[in-house]
């Protein structure tokens, strides 16, 4: 199957590589075109613009940083809209808000094209190993057609109904994750400041009711101040912001998420946005009596 892939950041590069390794023909595009070269070594073709990729492929997947990027790639000159139409499908796997997704859906479907939003849970390593959790919503026919690709990219796919539901599910999950990262970081700092060995805390946590892959995977690196990016902090803060907006729209009070968002904003303002979101630990560590 020939698949187009737009956006070769941390996630897009791993996902498109995975498709290539599993026998898909892939045509890639990235805003910074030089990032396509590594994929070409593994058999990918390059499209010079999003429109060129869509022209060539029946199915095109996008994995872009944020709502502005997702909209730009569809609506701007040489964008997806110039070539999408009947018989073609567009799958946006970026994490965006439901409004952005709906806007893209309306534009694509008005040309006769099919649209699916399919944000993912899981980070760099699950993307490399095909262990993502796919949160799809939109065109059911396109979802079914995409299952061979989703089976390569993920360990489980959910079809959640109408466009917007995938985006909402993803934002709820990441709102919880961002709050957890803040609580975890505060716990690490508190254990150190109160004279405990934080490595002991990691061991205790891992044996109890709140053991989880995030604490287990990131804890030891955090204690060494290693925040090599798997999930960039700037994207986690974007997700907190979008989740808080969803809370506003639905009159849901979220003081814990709001406080976590403030920590991520502070970390961004201190230049930590391109590090892993675990770098929020560094700003919590800085607070003194
Ligand atoms: N990293 C993770 O663990 C996960 C990330 N996500 C979500 O997936 C998406 C991608 O994340 P990730 O790969 O980590 O992000 P990166 O920051 O590594 O990559 C972002 C991509 O978006 C492109 N881009 C940014 N702005 C524009 C624009 N205006 N026009 C066109 N392209 C643009 C970048 O192009 P260029 O190379 O030119 O800058 C790059 O290809 C985000 O929505 C993120 O929230 C979801 C699950 C996990
Ligand atoms: O959006 C990013 C999610 C990262 C993860 O699920 O580990």
Automatic annotation (TrEMBL):
It holds the Pfam family NAD_binding_2. Residues 164-283 form the 3-hydroxyisobutyrate dehydrogenase-like NAD-binding domain. InterPro entries: 3-OH-isobutyrate_DH-rel_CS, 6-PGluconate_DH-like_C_sf, 6PGD_dom2, 6PGDH_NADP-bd, HIBADH-like_NADP-bd, HIBADH-related, HIBADH-related_NP60_sf, NAD(P)-bd_dom_sf. It catalyses: glycolate + NADP(+) = glyoxylate + NADPH + H(+); 4-hydroxybutanoate + NADP(+) = succinate semialdehyde + NADPH + H(+). Residues 2-161 form the 6-phosphogluconate dehydrogenase NADP-binding domain. Transmembrane segments: none annotated. It comes from the Eukaryota. Coiled coil: none annotated. Keywords: NAD, NADP, Oxidoreductase, Stress response. GO terms for molecular function: glyoxylate reductase (NADPH) activity; NAD binding; NADP binding. The keyword NADP applies. One of its GO terms (cellular component) is cytosol. The active site is at residue 170. Catalyzes the NADPH-dependent reduction of glyoxylate to glycolate as well as succinic semialdehyde (SSA) to gamma-hydroxybutyrate in vitro. May function in redox homeostasis and play a role in oxidative stress tolerance by detoxifying glyoxylate and SSA generated in glycolate metabolism and GABA metabolism, respectively. Belongs to the HIBADH-related family. NP60 subfamily. This is Glyoxylate/succinic semialdehyde reductase 1-like.
């Amino acid at each position: 199957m020939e698949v187009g892939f737009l956006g070769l950041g941390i996630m897009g590069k791993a996902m498109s590589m995975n498709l290539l390794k599993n026998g898909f023909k892939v045509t890639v595009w990235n805003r910074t075109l030089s990032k396509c070269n590594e994929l070409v070594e593994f058999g990918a073709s390059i499209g010079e613009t999003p429109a060129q990729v869509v022209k060539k492929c029946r199915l095109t997947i996008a994995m872009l940083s944020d709502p502005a990027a997702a909209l730009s790639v569809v609506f701007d000159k040489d964008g997806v809209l110039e070539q999408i139409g009947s018989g073609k499908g567009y799958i946006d796997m970026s994490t965006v808000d439901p409004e952005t997704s709906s806007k893209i859906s309306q534009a694509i479907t008005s040309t006769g094209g099919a649209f699916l939003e399919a944000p993912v849970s899981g980070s760099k390593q699950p993307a490399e190993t095909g262990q993502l959790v796919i949160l799809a919503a939109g065109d059911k026919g396109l979802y079914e057609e995409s299952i061979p690709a989703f089976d390569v990219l993920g360990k489980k796919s959910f079809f959640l109904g109408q466009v917007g539901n995938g985006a909402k599910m993803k934002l709820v999950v990441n709102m919880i994750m961002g709050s957890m990262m803040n609580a975890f970081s505060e716990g690490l700092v508190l254990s150190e400041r109160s004279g405990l060995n934080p490595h002991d805390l990691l061991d205790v946590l891992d044996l109890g009711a709140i053991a989880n892959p995030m604490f287990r995977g990131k804890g030891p690196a955090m204690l060494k101040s290693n925040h090599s990016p798997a999930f960039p902090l700037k994207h986690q803060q974007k997700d907190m912001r979008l989740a808080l907006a969803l809370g506003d729209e639905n009159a849901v009070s979220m003081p814990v998420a709001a406080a976590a968002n403030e920590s991520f904003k502070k970390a961004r303002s201190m230049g930590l946005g391109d590090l892993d979101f675990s770098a929020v630990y560094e700003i919590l560590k800085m607070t003194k009596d």
